[in-house]
Amino acid sequence: MSEILSTLKPHAGRLLGLHTLSLFEADVARTDDFGIEAAGLYLDYSKQRLDRAALAALLELATKAALTARIEGLFRGDIVNPTEARPALHTALRNPEDLSATVNGEPVGPLVAHTLARMHEVVKAISKGQWRGASGDTITDVVNLGIGGSHLGPQLVCDALRNLHTEQPRVHFVSNVDGGDIDRCLSKLNPARTLFIVASKSFTTPETAVNARTAQAWVTGTMTQADAIARHFFAITANPARAVAFGIAPDNVLPMWDWVGGRYSLWSAIGLPIALAVGSEAFTGLLEGAREMDEHFRRSPLASNLPVLLALIGLWNTNALEAESYALVPYDERLMLFPAWLQQLEMESNGKRITLGNEPVGSHTSPVVWGGVGTNVQHAFFQLLHQGTRRIPVDFILPLTHPRSPQAHHDMLVANCFAQAEALMVGRSREVLLAENPDPVLALHREQPGNQPCNVLLMEALTPRSLGALLALYEHRTFVQGVMWNINSFDQWGVELGKKLAATLLEEIHEGHVGSAHDGSTRSLLQRYLKARQT
Ligand code: F6P
């Protein structure tokens, strides 16, 4: 049994027999002490099925894992991704002045600062109408072509900061290789006024390449000027040679670097669509909010460190309470894409089974991450949280104010958020129900056990700063859990096999034959497709 399990299981055994409400009775300071504030975010974790002794055990495990030193190593540029021999310096993207972050002994800050300045120039040129398309028109629409980390973060931030969108340009996102995605987007646009950003760290991702080719054909189909591609395409990549080979003008290629993980890259030039949508000032605010969280994470003791506590609570729920998934429920439409972003961040980072010591992990790693926006999901999956058979921790996220929501709406939203958290913890006993209605069968069906663990995360308002802090908080949560499980949170070898098989299948589809190397099921599915394709 792993040390995590052997340490935590006795505490879980003690706590699983109790109702969380009784923990408030036993510890009068619980409400105040099980809350923490940093970088404008307040976390109430008193509704977790956790007491001081269990928390102390978690912190001791973190100390044993040398977490403080590992955090410092992350910021400094240590090789935290040994299977690819790379650091993961997303924190340097929000703090170019910090010369302690180095790669091969060289500070990365100057590179970051230079790229940020270039991004701001591009934003200014496009938004002020100085950048013209090949026919001399100003750019009204920008389409980001990217997938995974080159899509989810920028799309989430653009959506979350929708109240700050500048008049021009409008920013759109296409990620899926499903041609319906790009068709939906381009059918509304005018090629003469559209600019594409091909966002791909590797510049080898097939979905992005196919979308970029389709976009290229769409532009050159109506615009015959020799500089059509140069005026309508930018690339963001760590592989500039491939971008140039693709036909993008060298001056239109903005760099990123292999020391930034794709899913941690929205703070780099991959964030160009964000800066175009909300302006350079708001993009800077986003970076500042993240930096504030970084500073807190780097400097605070483990016991008063918000990302560390959030991570340890997650570890507790996964490994001690054996929760298989956890749900993210923002009570704000603007954060609708937050669960999708976190799915990649957490599951691609910590969906691992082998430790950094090259052994099987010995406990479960990343839970399944899912969620949706409140109050909508109360009328969808909340029934299962209240009366289903599974333990599913929930993170509620709530901005306390809203710039455009009438007070009557916002009061109701807040009341619902707090009510759901309360109901999930407190539940409703059969005795209470019987006092209302003596029908024992009905009481059986109406009973809610409660005891569902949840966090409530508050912020004053959803601004570039608080959003930056929120995203950095969850990035660090993911990192801390990776340290605790002693896994590499920064590679993603598991995505390779599917990509390789897809390439083989695509060749066979083009050749119209079914290869013998496949299993029977895959052969039969392919035969069906080849038949359908003929008609
Ligand atoms: O599918 C895995 C992945 O490599 C992600 O890690 C990455 O964010 C995404 O594909 C896109 O990669 P790229 O930015 O290189 O196109």
How is this structure best described in words?
- The protein is of the alpha/beta class.
- Helix content is 50%, strand content 11%.
- The protein has 23 helices and 13 strands.
- The strands form three sheets. Strands 1-2-13-12-10-11 form a six-stranded mixed β-sheet, sandwiched between helices.
- α1 packs antiparallel against α4, α14 runs parallel beside α21 and α16 packs parallel to α21.
- The longest helix has 22 residues.
- The N and C termini lie far apart (57 Å).
- Bound molecules: 6-O-phosphono-beta-D-fructofuranose (F6P).
- 6-O-phosphono-beta-D-fructofuranose binds next to loops.
**Strand percentage:** 5-15%
Summing up helix and strand content along with how strands pair, one would put the structural category as alpha/beta
End-to-end Cα distance, whole Å, is 57 Å
- Tell me how many strands there are: 13
Regions with pLDDT < 50 over 5+ consecutive residues?
none
Summarize the structure.
The protein has 535 residues and is of the alpha/beta class. 50% of the residues lie in helices and 11% in strands. Strand 8, helix 12 and strand 9 (253-255) form a beta-alpha-beta unit.
List the helices and strands and how they pair.
Elements: H1 3-16, H2 20-26, H3 30-33, E1 35-38, E2 41-44, H4 52-64, H5 67-76, H6 90-93, E3 102-103, E4 106-107, H7 109-127, E5 141-145, H8 152-160, E6 170-174, H9 179-186, E7 194-199, H10 206-222, H11 228-232, E8 233-237, H12 240-246, E9 253-255, H13 272-278, H14 280-299, H15 306-320, E10 325-330, H16 338-350, E11 368-371, H17 382-387, E12 394-399, H18 407-426, H19 430-436, H20 440-446, E13 454-459, H21 464-485, H22 496-511, H23 520-534
Parallel strand pairs: 5-6, 5-7, 7-8, 8-9, 10-11, 10-12, 12-13
Antiparallel strand pairs: 1-2, 2-13, 3-4
Helix pairs in contact: 1-4, 8-13, 13-14, 14-21, 15-21, 16-21, 19-20
Bound molecules: 6-O-phosphono-beta-D-fructofuranose (F6P).
6-O-phosphono-beta-D-fructofuranose binds at residues 147-150, 200-202, 205, 208, 262-263, 348, 492, 495.
